[in-house]
Amino acid sequence: MQMAQQWVALSTIVRKEVKRFSRIWVQTLLPPVITMSLYFVIFGKLIGSRIGTMDGIPYMQFVVPGLIMMAVLTNSYSNVTSSFFSAKFQRSIEEILVSPTPNVIILLGYCMGGMARGLSVGVLVTVVSLLFTDIQVHSWPLTITIVVLTSLFFSLAGFINAVYANTFDDISIVPTFVLTPLTYLGGVFYSVSVLPEFWQWVSQLNPILHMVGAFRYGLLGTGGENIGYAFAGLLLFTAVLFAVSLYLLKNGSRLRA
What we know:
Helix content is 75%, strand content 2%. The protein contains 11 helices and 2 strands. It has helices at 2-22, 25-28, 30-51, 59-89, 93-97, 103-129, 140-164, 173-184, 197-203, 207-220, 227-251, and strands spanning 53-54, 57-58.
C-alpha cells in the first residue's frame, strides 16, 4: 500500500512538471529548437563549409552532438530551477514537505520533470539536425546512457541552485556565469586537439567537455579516448549531487519560512 501511495505521489509531481512546460510549449520547447537551428545554419553550413573537417569528420556532423547536449543540459537545468524556486517562493513546497511524501520521491519527481523537458528538446533538436546532415548512431546504449545521465546531473544541479536562490535574479547567476562559459568551452564547436597543450590540459578540467566527448563518440564513433573516465565521473558526480539534494530537502532550513 505504501509503495502504491509513493507511486501516486511521484507520478503526480511528474505530471505536474510535464504539464507545466508542455502547456506553454511556445516558450519552453520552441525557442531552443529555433536557436539550435540558427547554430546549424551559421556554424554548420556557413562556417562549417569553410572549416571542412574536424577530427576527421565533416564539421556539420561534428557540431551536432555538442548542440544536442547543449540543448539537453540547459533545458534540464532551467526547468527544475525555475519550477522548484517558484514552489519555494509561493511556499507551496511547504505543503509537500509536511506531507508523508518521502524526500526522495519529491526530488525524483522534480528531476524527472526537468529530464522530460531536456530530453524532449534534445529529440526535437536531433530531428532538426537531420535536415542538415545524416547521422549514423555508433552505439545506441552509450548514446542514450550518457544523455540521460547528463540530463539527470543538470536537473540535480538546477535543484540545488533553486534551493539556495533567494530571489528570481539568483537563479540566473549560475547559468550566466558558470553554465554558459563551461558549455561554450566544452568542445561543442571545436576539438580540444586544436588548442595549445596548456589549454588542452585546462580544458580537461571542464566536466562538460567529457560529457560532450562521450556523447559524440556514442553518436559518431569519434573522440572516445576518455569514455571510461567520462562515464565514471558522471556517475560519481551525479551521485554526489543526489546526496546533497536529499540533505537539503531533509534539512529544510532554506525551504521553510
